[in-house]
Design goal:
It is a single chain. This protein is an all-beta fold. The protein folds into two domains: 7-156, abc- transporter (atp binding component) like domain (Coagulation Factor XIII, Chain A, domain 1, Distorted Sandwich); 163-284, Macroglobulin (MG2) domain (Immunoglobulin-like, Sandwich), CATH 2.60.40. The protein has strands spanning 32-41, 47-49, 53-55, 59-68, 78-87, 93-97, 106-107, 118-122, 130-140, 146-156, 163-169, 175-177, 182-183, 188-194, 196-197, 207-216, 222-226, 235-236, 242-243, 247-251, 259-269, 274-284. Strands 3, 5, 6, 7, 9 and 10 form a six-stranded mixed β-sheet that branches. Strand 9 (130-140) and strand 10 form a beta hairpin. The radius of gyration is 22 Å and the shape is globular. 33% of the residues are buried.
Length: 285
Amino acid sequence: MKKAGNGFVLALVFAGFVGTLAAASSPGSALNIKETIWARLDAAGKLVACDGKFRRGEKVHLVLRSVGPFKAGPDGRHWFDLDMNVAGPGGQTVLDQKNLLGEKGHVKLDEATAESPYGIFESAVGMEPGVYKMTLTIHDRIGGLQATAVQSFTLAPGLAYGDAVFARMDEQDKLNPVEAAVFQRGEAVHFVLINVGLFKKGPDGKHAFDIDMDVKNPDGQAVLTQKDMLGENGHILLADDVAESPYVTFQSSLSLPAGAYTMQMTVRDLIGKTDVTVKKSFALK
């Protein structure tokens, strides 16, 4: 699990965000939380506000907006920290972490206010779907005050995945992530989903899944569309009911125009009758 982010220095993308008031504040505390916001990472890696419904395997962000005022120390700096607890649908503790910021929270805050500290919970594909509860407690380590926000979020049922990455193949036929998602025209573009599941088994004890893909050019026109790409090759036994790294490949050509393309991949559980679709952009130079 990753530690909570020191979001007080981030420029979060909350255009038209919808937030709610903090669910709770410590009695008698001078710390205030203006509002809480659920957020997820978009394709560009920026935090955007959402409705609190997440797929399993996705990172769940709870952002606290405008927390303070914090007391300054003799050095003129403030010092705050975060505790985070996540409880599952049955009330069981899924994650409990203390003092997530440490020295990173020892900073000078404008107007004694932490603009947008947040906690991150990395859900897993195999987690039970349902309603979870996240509790964030923010501490003023100098002033001795605190405030707590408690909010519920949902992990949706159906197929889920851990991550989606573009990759290129090296000389050893190994796929390596391409974080910038920039490829040369004529290069093979690989789109990989990490840990897709959970798939249902058939009467023979095996799973059955298939993949569709679609590629569109910078003008939004279809360049490639393929259906049922696996056929019988998708009728296999998957460890832990998870497809570890299914991928599709688009062989670009020198005749294609440079620009931003989109690739869409759909993985279908033929037995469970569920599917998941992921679309991301890549560039051809």
